[in-house]
Amino acid sequence: MFDVVIIGSGVVGASIAYELSKYKLNICVVEKENDVSLGASRANSGIIHGGYDCVENSLMAKLNVEGNILVHQICKDLDVPLKNIGSLVIGKNDEDKQVINDLYNRGINNNVKGIKIIDSKQLYQLEPNLNEGFTCALYCESASIISPWELCIAQIECAINNGCKLNLNYEVTEIVAHNNYYTVSNGENSIDTKMIINASGAGSIKIDELLDECDYQCKYVKGEYYLLDKNQSSIVNHVIFQTPNKNGKGILITPTVHNNLLVGPTATNTTSDDTSVSSDGLQIIAKQVNNIYKDINLRENIRNFAGVRVRSLKKDFIIKESTKNKNYFIVAGIASPGLSASVAIAKKVVELVSVNNQLQQKETFINTRKVIRFNELSENEKIDLINKDKNYGRIVCRCENISEGEIINALNGPISISSIDAIKRRCNTGMGRCQGGFCGVKVMEIIAKHQNIAIENITADKKGSYIISNVTKKGV
């Protein structure tokens, strides 16, 4: 019998697992995919927003501002890449100035720190490569960029190190409510638990319907992106937003923590699992980019991708205990700024859980983690590391300068890995210009050898995405 089952291992589910693992609880996270962070948590803009955009007095506004502050310490403790580069909402005309002034006032009312309206001269000092004609901007110095999947992985790993169990490839198909506990099943195996926390993202409604719980509506919005090569990142210094208007917020442009440039997203109503990329979507992005930075070259694109974000029609986060089923907690509609708010959302969930359940903090809690990133070491540090472990002397991914030692470290981690992209999310292999064209096979060989599995059973990413179908001929 578990005390808590958390359904979903995106950044919100991971944050909840991390926060609850501080207490004397028997916790299990169940995830339908073969790795964590495979939904919206890996396909978003990677921004920790300031919080000026959220509707005043909303749960979204409160948790965004709190999360913006809290995430810095967690990233420091768990060695997650985060850079505080600030953001700008740029405008050209009187209408834009009015919207920017409204955003500023909203930010002040939301207790956002470090926001101010700047003029053209100040703007071009911060962003000298902007196209001409911008006259003002809202500057928010508390905005940051982050690697969202690395935050998710780090928190789940930390939770596991503190006793949490993770069940991958476990798609919940049935939930049965008993007098004082629940049975969660995937059709093959069942788990008994005193509490359930539904943090399944785009799948939240489907899970709630298993208990006839769903009293809210959501819509699914697809966002398509360009990921540009590192040679484009120096053009932009901050996260750049366009002034929102009646047609929407438009695309944003931001450096990434891995020194690429990210452009997007579009906003298209879709289904919960539509992550296709369209030529129409990419053309929308291209047109808007040219209006902002003439020097950005979309031909330096190394990858296009899309993510689906789920929005509740009430336009706020849904975080509550069920009124029908005691100790069934719903965490849904976590659209942007869900990543920014995730660690604060987790603390909010702990507050709700503690109302009916007496929580006792552990005497000891492992709250640190260290990741070796070979390409960030000094030459002397690299030499010392290679002398201790020769695996660090073998560079597997030449685009990103990733060593075999780092891959083996990831494979030795607390989460079982069986895909190339699982290594990519942990080590950055295949993130460079060739997108794994040269290192992919070598990564497969390392996984197969270390995990003692047949190479044809290794997937590119999600289950079923096999790379090798059969042997064509044997070597002689």
Describe the protein's architecture and organization.
This protein has twelve helices and 22 strands. The chain is an alpha+beta fold and 476 residues long. Strands 5, 6, 7, 13, 14, 15, 16, 17 and 18 form a nine-stranded mixed beta sheet that branches. The radius of gyration is 23 Å and the shape is globular. The termini are far apart.
Layout of strands and helices, then pairs:
Elements: E1 2-7, H1 11-20, E2 27-30, E3 47-48, H2 59-78, E4 82-83, E5 87-91, H3 94-109, E6 115-119, H4 120-126, E7 136-140, E8 144-146, H5 148-161, E9 165-167, E10 174-177, E11 182-185, E12 190-198, H6 204-209, E13 218-228, E14 239-242, E15 252-255, E16 261-264, E17 268-270, H7 279-292, E18 301-312, E19 318-321, E20 328-332, H8 338-356, H9 379-388, E21 395-397, E22 402-403, H10 404-411, H11 420-427, H12 440-451
Parallel strand pairs: 1-2, 1-12, 2-9, 5-14, 12-20
Antiparallel strand pairs: 3-8, 4-8, 5-7, 6-7, 10-11, 11-12, 13-16, 13-17, 13-18, 14-15, 15-16, 19-20, 21-22
Task: Write a concise keyword list for the protein shown above.
globular; Arc Repressor Mutant, subunit A; eight-stranded mixed beta sheet; D-Amino Acid Oxidase, Chain A, domain 2; 476 residues; alpha+beta; 30% helix; FAD/NAD(P)-binding domain
